[in-house]
């Protein structure tokens, strides 16, 4: 910090993955930003969903959302290490927003001391600019087999000495045992840093939990700071646990418009948050390659961490034939890797699959893609809608926002958004490199108007909530359910 004072810190750990750490940190960032200049931080993130900062660095989407909630610009220091699983026990390692290497778990842990240095440097830079750093752990904190090489839970706790709030998920069952057991299994020095428990995703009357809460406090000497309700999030999901839950719950839910959108569940799917804005206004289902595609009103092929491998799997499963069978009947969108698959050919110099080869795409767009070097395009963009046709004609000339995260370059003569993307002669097959496309209200509206008119049903417009309104709503839940006075005391007690 500019005045020389040491930034205060707060560390949120979880008893397991998907217990609600990210959303709780988001809510805390919003609430606490009213008193402090706040930065989020996650030393190491393993996520299918990433975000591009203004200076072209790639970080986990959760830290970008948390920064926005805090009212600050996302930076690479907020998520210094990002692991993007590619399959075959290999992940692309992103360090300070830049591709570092593809590594197996064993090889990655061989470089863990180097990663410790990276996170220390990131923390030092954040400390020089912010008054409070709200930090997030990863997965379950008590992974006893990883203590000697952990940088994100035990590692962050020891490096910072920060007070810890431990979060448990009651929806998964056994929340009292998981909170008690996690505290008991953590190393003694880290366990002593736990200053409060939070129970998340509760459905019902919190008073029912009171006897258990008091016993947990007596057994551990740690106060329960509150019980958060099950909350219908309006903020993007973080990781693969979220998409697995989407896949489990395929029952048709009430939506604003009776429209069925099928998203192909590629084996190496990435940035599936692209489609969450559509879930608010249509029925979105994620279809595995071995499933019947059915009769959707629209098909979307998403991004992927390996276009060639997923294209080969698409062909082997027969899903490519199912998609082609819908050509001319329903709109077909391809985002990023999905866009590359929609074209005529893909040339891989060995970047994707290790050997130089040419592959036939689905042939629905007149494009050619080449993977020439191990280099990733990462940038935020604003583009003008230049395509016409039945979907985009009435928003032609308007602006859309998005971000690109891809390898390879695609040649086309029929663009959609400025110099990006491609569209076929019918105007119903669309490819683009723009992640976040459906965050644009004009694009969502254009697509839904087309789909409802084609289906012969009334188009019902959505009530659009701004990002700021979503953060305020979440902050209201956090403030009403957590003992914020205790949390402020926990923060202020730091030297």
Automatic annotation (TrEMBL):
GO terms for molecular function: ABC-type vitamin B12 transporter activity; catalytic activity. Pathway: Cofactor biosynthesis; adenosylcobalamin biosynthesis. Keywords: Cobalamin biosynthesis, Glutamine amidotransferase. GO terms for biological process: cobalamin biosynthetic process. The active site is at 336 (nucleophile), 435. The keyword Cytoplasm does not apply. Residues 11-230 form the CobQ/CobB/MinD/ParA nucleotide binding domain. It comes from the Archaea. InterPro entries: Class_I_gatase-like, CobQ/CobB/MinD/ParA_Nub-bd_dom, CobQ_GATase1, CobQ_N, CobQ_synth, GATase_3, P-loop_NTPase. Residues 260-442 form the CobB/CobQ-like glutamine amidotransferase domain. NCBIfam families: cobQ, PRK00784.1. Belongs to the CobB/CobQ family. CobQ subfamily. PANTHER family: COBYRIC ACID SYNTHASE (PTHR21343:SF1), DETHIOBIOTIN SYNTHETASE (PTHR21343). Catalyzes amidations at positions B, D, E, and G on adenosylcobyrinic A,C-diamide. NH(2) groups are provided by glutamine, and one molecule of ATP is hydrogenolyzed for each amidation. HAMAP family: CobQ. This is Probable cobyric acid synthase. It comes from Methanolobus chelungpuianus.
């Amino acid at each position: 910090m500019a005045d020389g004072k040491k930034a205060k810190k707060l560390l949120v750990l979880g008893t397991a993955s998907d217990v609600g750490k990210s959303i709780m940190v988001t809510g805390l960032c919003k609430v606490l930003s009213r008193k402090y200049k706040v930065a989020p931080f996650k030393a190491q993130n393993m996520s299918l969903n990433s975000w591009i900062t203004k200076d072209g660095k790639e970080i986990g989407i959760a830290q970008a959302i948390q920064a926005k909630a805090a009212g600050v610009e996302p930076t690479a220091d907020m998520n210094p290490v990002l692991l993007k699983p590619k399959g075959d026990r290999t992940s692309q390692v992103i360090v300070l927003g830049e591709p570092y290497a593809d590594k197996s778990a064993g090889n990655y842990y061989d470089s863990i001391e180097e990663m410790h240095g990276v996170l220390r440097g990131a923390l030092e830079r954040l400390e020089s600019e912010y008054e409070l750093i709200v930090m997030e752990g990863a997965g379950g904190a008590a992974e006893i087999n990883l203590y000697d090489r952990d940088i994100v839970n035990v590692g962050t706790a020891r490096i910072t000495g920060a007070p810890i709030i431990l979060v448990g998920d009651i929806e998964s069952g056994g929340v009292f045992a998981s909170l008690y057991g996690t505290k008991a299994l953590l190393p003694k020095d880290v366990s002593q840093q736990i200053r409060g428990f939070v129970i998340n995703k509760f459905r019902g009357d919190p008073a029912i939990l009171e006897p258990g809460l008091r016993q947990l406090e007596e057994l551990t000497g740690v106060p329960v700071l509150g019980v958060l309700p099950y909350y219908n999030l309006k903020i993007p999901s973080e990781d693969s646990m979220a998409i697995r839950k989407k896949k489990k719950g395929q029952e048709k839910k009430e939506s604003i418009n009776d429209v069925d959108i099928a998203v192909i569940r590629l084996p190496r799917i990435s940035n599936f948050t692209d489609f969450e804005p559509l879930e608010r206004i249509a029925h979105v289902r994620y279809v595995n390659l071995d499933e019947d595609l059915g009769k959707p009103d629209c098909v979307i092929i998403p991004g992927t961490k390996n276009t060639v491998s997923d294209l080969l799997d698409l062909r082997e499963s027969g899903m490519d034939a199912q998609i082609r069978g819908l050509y001319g009947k329903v709109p077909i969108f391809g985002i990023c890797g999905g866009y590359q698959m929609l074209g005529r050919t893909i040339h891989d110099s060995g970047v994707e699959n290790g050997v130089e080869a040419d592959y036939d795409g689905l042939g629905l767009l007149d494009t050619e893609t080449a993977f020439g070097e191990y280099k990733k395009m990462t940038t935020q963009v604003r583009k003008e809608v230049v395509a016409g046709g039945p979907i985009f004609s009435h928003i032609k000339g308007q602006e859309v926002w998005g971000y690109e995260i891809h390898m390879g370059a695609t040649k086309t003569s029929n663009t959609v958004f400025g110099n990006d993307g491609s569209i076929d002669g019918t105007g119903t097959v669309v490819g683009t490199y723009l992640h976040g496309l459906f965050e644009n209200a004009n694009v969502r509206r254009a697509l839904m108007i087309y789909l409802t008119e084609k289906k012969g049903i009334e188009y019902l417009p959505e009530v659009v909530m701004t990002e700021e309104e979503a953060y305020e709503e979440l902050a209201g839940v956090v403030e009403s359910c957590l003992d914020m006075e205790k949390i402020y005391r926990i923060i202020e007690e730091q030297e």
